[in-house]
Amino acid sequence: MVRILVVDDDPDFCEITRTVLEREGYEVRAAASGEQALSQMRSDPPDLVILDVMMRSVLDGLDLSDRMQTDPSLKKIPIIMVSSIASSQYAGMFPTDAYLPVDAWISKPVSPQTLLEQVRRYLPG
User: Fold this and answer.
1) How far apart are CA 76 and CA 53, in angstroms?
2) 8 Å CB contact between 56 and 9
3) Contact partners, residue 119, CB within 8 Å, separation at least 6
4) Whole-prediction pTM value?
5) Structural domains present in the chain
6) CA-to-CA distance for 54 and 35, rounded, in angstroms?
7) Distance CA 81, CA 96 (A)
8) pLDDT digits 0-9 by tens, 33-57
9) Separation CA 12–CA 42 (nearest Å)
């Protein structure tokens, strides 16, 4: 079974995303911070990560994606970044000219159809 890790500090987003993905037969786990996600991934790597930018710190998600890239056991896991930072007061803090180690970017709110299209696109196999 394909395992997806949803990393977001918003429990409503996690639950809605879990419902959408489980209906399609995916196994879904959740983490509320980059640190929690890193711990889960190191013990049981997922097939794909759906990652928020703003959690414990404004750029927590970017920090996690950078850390995944430097870990040989995690660097090949696809990352779909999902965030509302572009429409937030923190938009200016986002490094628009930097390389972002993510495979796809989706702005919140996310439609179930868009989410599923991206998940299918980046899953292994």
Assistant:
1) 19
2) yes
3) 4, 21, 24, 26, 48, 50, 80
4) 0.85
5) 3-122 (3.40.50.2300)
6) 13
7) 14
8) 999 999 999 999 999 999 987 666 5
9) 25
